[in-house]
Amino acid sequence: MIEEFDVQKETEKLKQLTKVIRKPRFYRSRLDEHSDALIALHRAGSTTAQIHRFLVKEKKVNVAWSTVYRWVKKNG
Predict the structure, then answer these.
(1) DSSP notation for 21-49
(2) Does residue 17 lie in a domain region?
(3) Any domain includes 7
(4) Percentage of the chain with pLDDT > 90?
(5) DSSP category for residue 2
(6) CB–CB of 51/38 below 8 Å?
(7) Alpha carbons 72 and 48: distance in angstroms, whole number
(8) Fewest Cβ atoms closer than 10 Å to its Cβ: which of 3, 35, 52, 54?
(9) Rounded to whole angstroms, how far apart are CA atoms 17 and 32?
């Protein structure tokens, strides 16, 4: 006997699989460790490029400028 293809049942299976695959992930940023200093620099009027140089030279954190920009935009 051949089973009938149940579209609704297969759609539900696929939706459940998608929920498992798209599980939200959170990874702490390396910048979170220096959040107090970064927020203080931003509020004092430092540019993102200046904050990036501070991280690279003073704190020895190798991070891209764009990452600093996004972090400051989100947390600053």
Answers:
(1) HT-------GGGGGHHHHHHHHHTT--HH
(2) no
(3) no
(4) 74
(5) P
(6) yes
(7) 8
(8) 3
(9) 33
| One-letter identity of residue 73 | K
Question: What is the pLDDT at residue 21?
Answer: 87
Count up the domains in the chain and report the number: 1
For residue 35, give the amino acid letter: S
Indicate whether 23 belongs to any domain: no
Tokens of 4: 């009938």
Rounded Cα distance, 41 and 6, in Å: 59
pTM above 0.90, yes or no: no
* Domain around 44: 28-76
> Quick check: is 76 in a domain?
yes
Does pLDDT of 50 surpass 90? yes
Cα–Cα dist 54/42, whole Å? 12
d(CA 16, CA 20): 7
Tokens of 31: 């910048």
